[in-house]
Automatic annotation (TrEMBL):
UniProt feature coiled coil, ranges: none
GO molecular function: GTP binding; ribosome binding
Gene: der
Protein name per its UniProtKB record: GTPase Der
UniProt binding sites for GTP 2: 187-194, 234-238, 299-302
Species whose genome carries this gene: Brachymonas denitrificans DSM 15123
Length: 446
């Protein structure tokens, strides 16, 4: 088991910057903005041959009042501390000691968890006088670092791993990513994405709050169901561009789009109480453009009457007509209704996206399709489809070879797509058909 290191501290002390340094990534959004990180954010790090897991947390306020989002963030941090083998308590060397630092230190001392006091933003500062005040916290030695400049990070990680007795391994560990399905949950703000993932996990792993835009980063959570490993990715809700006012939220949109691109399957979550909006159609269009396998689920189905349900289904048929190949489910994340069939569709969509189609089978189907309905003649010539083979997976790509294929209409391509989908049961994945015309060796000769 990899050791777990949790980063804890008040807002804007540089926890996410340190997280990115320790994971050698840019997975956590970083900005000069207090309260940006709200959920627990996991990442893998490696120093030498020692691997570890880092947990980035939101600004910690142990005594935050009930009902506020700060209380929800505090619960996330408390859970991260409970999961960790060692806690790095981050303070701001330039801002100095604060009452909130005392509260966090008291909380960590009561738990008895192995804790290391880290003074961030210490670049250019002489050790000694500026750090003396932090010894009041009673957590032992203060380790000055600069996450932004990378100073002292390597020795800090070594000390953290040594403090919990993690030896240098003899051999490199094998990778664990094989066979894992990356599932991104995407949709507009406040449709219930975090609530759905929390329901699946059986714990309040993500901050679920009745406030659009609560999730600001793409949060990844490992999960296993019936022996199949998943990586659940909760994305920030995508608003219309005109509604994105904060620069932080613009970064969140980028992270969401990156999460969709890196996923194997995307669960597009809709809100039954609001129907299918233009923004839902934009998100669906981006999923289709990236070629991701997709499953559509309408959340809050229990909160609407029969008339509203009929309106929602009509809007799905009209505005999401280009996703007819995707399975559609009606669920209630809060009441755990209809979630079982969603998993079956996710597995089916992933299998369809990675299907292998043999060249003889594709060529035979192509000839049968042409025999049943030939492509339209264009002038003196009729396109001649000779053979087909698979050109890629996730999404599946079928390459058709022949003569005068530039005259094949989009309607005929949709006809071929329909026959291929029926034969190979391609539910939940886009299918791309490419036409390659053979070169005429006599074209340029007199």
């Amino acid at each position: 088991m990899k050791p777990v290191i949790a980063l804890v501290g008040r807002p804007n002390v540089g926890k996410s910057t340190l997280f990115n340094r320790m994971t050698k990534s840019r997975d956590a959004i970083v900005a000069d903005f207090a309260g940006l990180t709200r959920d627990r954010h996991y990442g893998n790090g490696r120093q030498g041959r020692r691997e570890y897991i880092v947990i980035d947390t939101g600004g910690f306020e142990p005594d935050a009042g009930d009902g506020s989002i700060f209380r929800e963030m505090a619960r996330q941090t408390q859970q991260a501390v409970a999961e960790a083998d060692v806690v790095l308590f981050i303070v701001d060397a330039r801002a100095g000691l604060s009452a909130q630092d005392h509260d966090i230190a008291n909380y960590l001392r009561r738990l008895g968890k192995t804790s290391i006091l880290v003074a961030n933003k210490a670049e250019g500062m002489k050790e000694g006088q500026q750090l003396v005040d932090f010894y009041e916290l009673g957590l032992g030695e203060v380790y000055p670092v600069s996450a932004a400049h990378g100073q002292g990070i390597r020795s800090l990680v070594d000390f953290a791993l040594d403090s919990i007795g993690i030896p240098e391994p003899d051999d490199d560990l094998p990778t664990e990513d094989e066979g894992i399905i990356k599932l991104a949950v995407a949709g507009r703000p406040n449709v219930g994405k975090s609530t759905l993932i929390n329901t699946w996990l059986g714990e309040e792993r993500l901050v679920a709050f009745d406030l659009p835009g609560t999730t600001r980063d793409a949060i990844s959570v490992p999960f296993e169901r019936n022996g199949q490993k998943f990586e659940l990715i909760d994305t920030a809700g995508l608003r219309r561009k005109g509604k994105v006012f904060e620069a932080i939220e613009k970064f969140s949109v980028v992270k969401t789009l990156q999460a969709i691109e890196s996923a194997n399957v995307v669960l597009l979550l809709l809100d039954a109480t609001q129907g299918v909006t233009d923004q839902d159609a934009h998100i669906a269009g981006f999923i289709l453009e990236t070629g991701r396998a997709v499953v559509v689920a309408i959340n809050k189905w229990d909160a609407v009457d029969e008339y509203q349900r009929e309106l929602v289904l009509r809007s799905v048929e009209t505005r999401l007509a280009f996703l007819k190949f995707a399975a559609l489910h009606y669920i209630s994340a809060k009441k755990r209704q209809g979630l079982g069939p969603v998993w079956q569709s996710i597995i089916q969509a992933h299998a369809a996206a990675n299907i292998k189609m043999s060249t003889p089978m594709l060529t035979r189907l192509l000839h049968e399709a042409v025999q049943f309905q030939a492509p339209k003649r264009s002038g003196m010539f009729r396109p001649k489809l000779r053979y087909a083979h698979q050109g890629g997976m996730n999404p599946p790509v079928v390459v058709v070879h022949g003569n005068s294929l530039e005259h094949v209409t989009d309607a005929y391509k949709r006809y071929l797509e329909g026959r291929l989908r029926k034969q190979f049961n391609l539910i939940g994945t886009p299918l791309r058909i490419e036409m390659k015309t053979s070169h005429n060796p006599y074209k340029d000769k007199e």
